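Researcher: I'm preparing a figure for a lab meeting and need a structural model of a single chain. I don't have an experimental structure, so a prediction will have to do for now. The sequence is pasted below. Please return the structure as tokens so I can convert it later.
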Amino acid sequence: NSKLHLSVPFILENDDISINILDTNGNVDINGGKTHNIVYSYEKDPEYKKLELERKRVSKEQFTGLDMNDEPKVEAARKKVDAAANPVYKIKNEAFKNILNTDNPPIAKAIASTMYSAKDYTVDKVMANLEKYKKEVGTSEYITYYEKMMNEVKEMESNAKTVEVGSSFKDVVGKDRDGNEIKLSDLVAKNKYTILEFWASWCGPCRGEIPNLKKAYAKYNGKGLEILSVSLDAKESAWLTAMDDEKTTWPSVLIDGEFQNPQVVNYGITGIPASYLIDQNGKIVASNYELREFDLDRTLSKYLK
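Model: Understood. Here is the structure written out token by token.
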């Protein structure tokens, strides 16, 4: 028997709930309580079911056996997957919008308000909605949790603005596998350019970037590039195993507290990998998507001739 790892979102409430796993592709049939049935009503829509199956099929078809080093093929595959995914997200979003605009229990509206997305639907608007529904719902762990999370997001957004391109870097200090303290500021002072990369062993996209970083290091280290990898792993053993597996050769440190570490909070990081290219004067000259995949070499080639 192969183990099936599934993430199945549902709303736990005081009601009879059944979750039937239909197949190994993650298709499930959930008959939940009243709130679940309102918030996830789109899952019963035949059009949604059809489009979601198609999205999964296209994604599997496009990425099975794909050479991730072939930029035109990767871009073409992503376009096809996005084209299949967009109508799925549209149905979901319209369903959440409909819940907010029609007569529904306030707790269903509160949950839908945290799942709806639109360009002008800012954190402040989510918070205003939660404040409104809270008056009707009363004490709700869900609303309390989301308000706390939204306040953290606001703080992170504000901190992230202080490390945008053109800003000065903020120092990061951690210990390497031998217990030696390494300071980002020391590396910045010694090298023409330094990449600061926040990652963790459990983060698939972070591990996916390591081959790109290896290529960049081989090509540009002799021209004045250094890298500092800062791990947010909770367990030192997981970090050490990942480094042994990846065989990286640049400085790498572990810091405590994961995303709550003040050094991480300083950068306003809510997801990893998070990457910054810093010049010798301590100025951030590129960040995040400019330092991913095929763009990493394009960016570095501008600065390191």
